[in-house]
Write a structure and sequence with these properties.
Helix content is 48%, strand content 15%. By secondary structure, it is α/β, with parallel strands linked by helices.
């Protein structure tokens, strides 16, 4: 994590009301829980916390993360314990609203009861923090034995929606084109990861074929102005994770990140951390990095915070209260 001295900008960012709309709970696992579980195996944080670390591939990243996730997330109670720490850290950063996902693979391969996991995560939310829980499903994560579970999930009252996870290069299977519309018909919100390891065309696919209402990452849409225009015209926001994009090699550096260009083209972009246990980042780090590497001004950082509240799944009155609080700090 960043350990630089507190500056006026750092304090401004800390006071700024914020959201986190792209957070994998398995990837947000607090390190101290692993260390407490097995101090010999998890003696020190991953090398990937280093600022200059870069993963060799998505497979490299995924293996490291899943090794840690499966070591801890063995019960719904473990999800509750982890989420409680994660959410308290959000409060400490003045985060007011969080959208987090848990991976359906934890049900498929770990035998966990998904409905209970959702309840355990939601019960960990402290006063002052609104939390929405999503079920993340990999491209090839719907074998016959999981289909009934996903159909049942359409009725789970605590589940906000569905998110397409995993390696983008794995072709979409037919079930996704059925489940995503069914989710919206059931009152659930739909997202999809795209524009990370595949180019702009897959962003177009999840918008046009799945009807995804939000794209996780989306940054490689910049490779095709027509796809950027599509996202802007349809109001599809991109939940962007700049430090993740650098460490996974999606972009060469923060200086070269397309965030500014996407915003200039009219795409709503929010800022999140993705998988802090793999990247060693916090939301504070993300905002500070944008100020340092892309010269985002305090007013521009406030606009990023506002974008998060604009896409939040809350009543309009609550949204307006939060936006007013951002304006107070902005002024």
């Amino acid at each position: 994590m960043t350990t630089a001295p507190v500056s006026a900008l750092s304090e401004y960012i800390r006071r700024l009301p914020k959201t986190e709309t792209h957070l994998h709970l398995e990837g947000a696992l607090p390190w101290e829980l692993l260390n407490r579980l097995d101090a010999r195996r998890f003696a020190s944080p991953p090398a990937s916390w280093s600022e200059h670390f870069r993963f060799d591939s998505f497979a490299h990243f995924e293996k490291e993360l899943l090794d840690m996730a499966f070591a801890w997330y063995a019960t719904p109670e473990r999800y509750h314990q982890a989420a409680k720490i994660v959410f308290q850290r959000h409060l400490a950063q003045n985060v007011r609203y969080v959208e987090t996902s848990f991976a359906s693979g934890m049900m498929q391969f770990g035998g966990l009861p998904g409905k209970e996991v959702v309840a355990a995560i939601r019960e960990a939310a402290p006063a002052g923090l609104e939390v929405r829980v999503f079920l993340g499903i990999h491209h090839n994560g719907c074998p016959p034995e999981m289909r009934a579970i996903f159909e049942d999930a359409l009725t789970w009252p605590g589940l906000a929606g569905f998110d397409l996870h995993g390696v983008e290069t794995v072709p979409l299977e037919g079930w996704t084109r059925e489940l995503w519309p069914a989710a919206r018909a059931a009152g659930k919100y739909t997202k999809a990861h795209a524009g990370e390891f595949c180019g702009a065309e897959f962003v177009r696919t999840v918008i046009e074929e799945l009807g995804a209402q939000r794209v996780q990452h989306g940054v490689r849409a910049i490779e095709d102005p027509a796809v950027v225009a599509l996202a802007a015209a349809q109001g599809v926001a991109f939940d962007v994770c700049p430090i993740s994009n650098v460490k996974l090699g999606v972009v060469p550096s923060l200086r070269e990140h397309p965030l500014r260009r996407l915003r200039a083209a009219g795409v709503v972009c929010t800022i999140s951390t993705d998988d802090p246990i793999s990247f060693g980042n916090s939301l504070q780090d993300e905002y500070e990095a944008l100020a340092r590497e892309q010269d985002f001004t305090p007013a521009e950082l406030a606009d990023l915070a506002r974008a998060g509240f604009k896409v939040a799944l809350v009543e309009e009155a609550q949204r307006e209260r939060w936006l007013s609080e951002v304006d107070v700090v902005k002024g």
